[in-house]
Amino acid sequence: MKLRRGAAKWGVAFLILAVVFSLAYIQFYQSAEAQGGPPGGNSANFDFYGYVKGPNSSFLGGANVTIEVVNFSLMTNGPPPTVAKFSNTTLLNGFFNISNITGGANYNIKIKKYKGNFTGPNTTAVYIGPTLPPFPAFFLSNDTQGILNSTFILQRAGNINLSAYNASLANRVNFTFELADTKLGFPIEDPVFDESQYIYEKIVHVPYNRNYTVQFHPHWSPPIELAINNLSLYNESPNCLNNDNCVYFINASVNTSMSMVNVWGWVNTTEFGTFNDTSANLTNLTITNYMVYLAGTW
C-alpha cells in the first residue's frame, strides 16, 4: 500500500506542477514524439548551456549546475530513479555549459551555489534554483521553444540537516525520508525503500521561504513526521543578507524510540460483501502510513 501510494503521490504531484507549465510542456512532449523519438525526446546526446544570476540579478560565478537523467520505466518504490548525472560550474560571468548529455530521457535541473564553493551531500548552500518536475530532452535542447541558453535566477537557500537517534540519544539510526512542500504537496525528495540507500545524516537544500513537512522512515521503526515552518528565521548570520556566505540552517533530528500501544475496538462487517450478516474472524491489523502536511511549527 505504502509503496504504491508513494509512487502515485509522486505522479500526482508531478502532474500538478506540470499543469503550471502545461501548454509549453505538452507542446514539447508532442514535438518529441512527432520526431519519432521516445517521450523523452531525440535520443541523440546534447549540450545544455545558459546563464545563472543571484537574487540581486547579478551574474553568479561558482554555482553548480547539475542535470540528472531519470528513468520512469524503472520507477517502483517512489520517484523515478536517477541513472546518470552531468554537471559543471558557472564562470564569473554566470555562463555554464554541460556537454554530451545522454539523450532520449527525462531530466531534473538542479542549480545551487554552495558556501565557499564547496560541493557534496553535506555542504551548506546559499542560493538555489527553482524546484521543477522532470522535463524531456526537447525542452532542454531547444533554444526557441525550450530553455536552452536561458538565464536562471536563484533565490536564498535553506539547509535542513536531517538525523535520527535511538532512545538513549547515544547512537544514530539509519533512515530514509520524504520531504515535501507543505502548501503545494510537491515532493522535494521521496524515499527509496532500499537498505543500501539508508543514511545516517543528510543536509537537504530547499528554497528558504517555504514551509516543509518531513517524514522519517527509520530502519525497523515506524515513520515519524516533523513540520518545519519559517525556515527564513534560521539565519546563522542575520546581518549579512547581501553576503554570498549567508546560510539559513536548521537541525531536524528525531528520537526513534518506541513504546507499546494497545489497540482495541470493533469492526462492522455489514459493508464487506461476502462478510455481510456473517461472523468474521479478523486475525491481523495492517497500518498504512501517509504523509500528512502538518500545520504546526517544528
Structure description:
The protein is mainly β. The chain has a domain at 2-154: Sandwich (Immunoglobulin-like), CATH 2.60.40. It is 12% helix and 33% strand. Strands 2, 3, 5, 6, 7, 9, 12 and 15 form an eight-stranded mixed sheet that branches. A four-stranded antiparallel sheet has the order 11-10-13-14, with no helix packed on it. The protein starts with a helix and ends in a 43-residue tail after the last strand. Mean pLDDT is 77; it is low at 1-40.
Summarize the structure.
The chain has 298 residues and is mostly beta strands. The protein has a domain at 2-154: Immunoglobulin-like (Sandwich), CATH 2.60.40.
Write the layout of secondary structure elements.
Blueprint: H1 2-20, H2 22-34, E1 46-53, E2 64-70, E3 82-89, E4 95-101, E5 106-114, E6 125-128, E7 135-136, H3 137-141, E8 150-153, E9 155-165, E10 175-181, E11 187-189, E12 201-207, E13 212-218, E14 224-228, E15 248-255
Parallel strand pairs: 1-8, 9-15
Antiparallel strand pairs: 1-4, 2-3, 2-5, 5-6, 5-7, 6-9, 9-12, 10-11, 10-13, 13-14
